[in-house]
Write a structure and sequence with these properties.
Layout (H helix, E strand, L loop, with lengths): L22 E3 L17 E3 H6 L3 H14 L8 E5 L3 E5 L7 E6 L5 E5 L3 H4 L5 H4 L2 H9 L1 H7 L2 H11 L1
Antiparallel strand pairs: 1-2, 3-4, 4-5, 5-6
This protein binds zinc ion.
Length: about 160
Amino acid sequence: MALFYDGLPCTLCGEEMTNADQLFSTSHFLGPDSDLWEYSDAIMPWDCDARWEHQARFGQMYFEANRQCSDQNGPWGVAHSDDQLMVKTSPDKHVGEVDVMLARTGSGFRVCLADGEDWLTGECFGDYHHEIASEELTAILPLLRSRFQLRRLLSLRLAWI
Ligand SMILES: [Zn+2]
């Protein structure tokens, strides 16, 4: 992962970023054979990413790269995966979170299981996530509610212990 510091130039526009920016970063998931490889392992403000012409394609590529290596992710296992969404959970009883990743923005979230029922109301998305990710979350909320039931995930997690 690229390291952030105050004043680091934005990968997209070159303007200095600050701690006040909501940031999107990716791992080094693309090689030089991709036309977007220079943007992997980089940091950009969500404000810039949202306006970027390649935003949707880049987000989708990051999502697919994460899906493809999801079985090599140590203690995290895939509980649900489709074209829109991937949900991972951990059998480790000390990890009280699930990991959610969205396809259209390539954004990822850790959701505390204890807060999951409240989170699934969607009321707080705008408080924590940039508009572009919040909109995507809201759009797939019915899918999240039907397929990503925290109690089911929790019982799955407990079954692994
Ligand atoms: Zn920028």
